[in-house]
Amino acid sequence: MRIYADNAATTKVDKRVLEKMMPFFCEMYGNPSSVHSAGQEVKAAIDEARQQVADAIGCESKEIYFTAGGSEADNWAIKGIAKKYASKGKHIISTKIEHHAVLHTLDSLKKDGYEITLLDVDSEGFINLEELENAIRPDTILITIMFANNETGVMEPIAEIGKIAKEHKVLFHTDAVQAVGHVPVNVKEMNIDMLSMSAHKFNAPKGVGALYVRKGIIMPNLIDGGGQEKGRRAGTENTAAIVGMGEAIKIAVENMEEESKKVAYLRDKLLNGLMEKIPECKQNTPKSDKRLPGIANLSLKYIEGESILLMMDIKGICASSGSACTSGSLDPSHVLLALGLDHGTAHGSVRFSLDRFNTEEEVDYILEELPKIAERLREMSPLWNKR
User: Fold this and answer.
1) How many other β-carbons are positioned within 10 Å of the β-carbon of residue 357?
2) Which residue among 61, 216, 316, 326 is least enclosed by CB atoms within 10 Å?
3) pTM of structure
4) Among 26, 59, 281, 325, which one carries the catalytic annotation?
5) Would residue 26 show up in a list of annotated catalytic residues for this protein?
6) pLDDT tens figures, 99-126
């Protein structure tokens, strides 16, 4: 038996999505840049997928650029704007809880003389809008703040951030990798200038994503070469994956309200049950309604998160201690430290991330097994015995 509760790391491909992709491997395999019918029918499929992605976030299809994933989209947006607007200024505002695709990109810009302001967050992970506005300077060229956090599920006040950015004539980019396909997103209503997404977070294949760029913003080319993606990102398109992304996002949006209620119910049952059954726990997922439906993060004090994960894996439960991109690191989560947790408590964190394929029976099994695992590990913990 295996229970997969690590959907913030990646999701399984929906069988309907796979079915939609299959013809583009062996039957409709033409190059979409070719003028013949075999190429043009593939180009039409890419155009359809581009429209599906655009419809999902409330923009025009020509504002969507396909990428290899969320990290590439983040890099392109941030470095592209930094390069394009360097003559205006070299100041960028972000937060301390961003994904490393953003934080490490900002670190690389520091080496080129850019100044980065990382905003603090409160104990639940929310930024202070007044602090954001006060941080804006005449040389500020970009605000990049994530839509929803991959570790705790906190959702930032994106529409309000976008409004502040617009009032100050500063471009606003959001890493919405965890949000798209799970909660409503409308780039026009939220005053978002650029948005990153990744298909494998909403039951499409890995290796494909997209960057939304508002009409009127001229981005530097990411890859020079042919005319693909309006000449901005050259290279023959990953057609099957792009088609899969379009189908997956269409399915996700059509069923979002119903599926979100189901997943949120499972999240609450899991979180509340664990908090009740295991003493000395701290809930790291915010109690506010402004959180993703599927993420449940908590710290089990006096034991190591890695030990918990290994013992859960033996029992067939797949979860995470934080971001999949840093799962091999022994350092505590930078997100949880930013929330004010001490190193010991942060080290004992576990993240469960559920999606529409999880069941109540699976949640019941976790509620049965994890308390026993926690008790066993604490019996071996000198910190527990000395408390």
Assistant:
1) 14
2) 216
3) 0.95
4) 325
5) no
6) 999 999 999 999 999 999 999 999 999 9
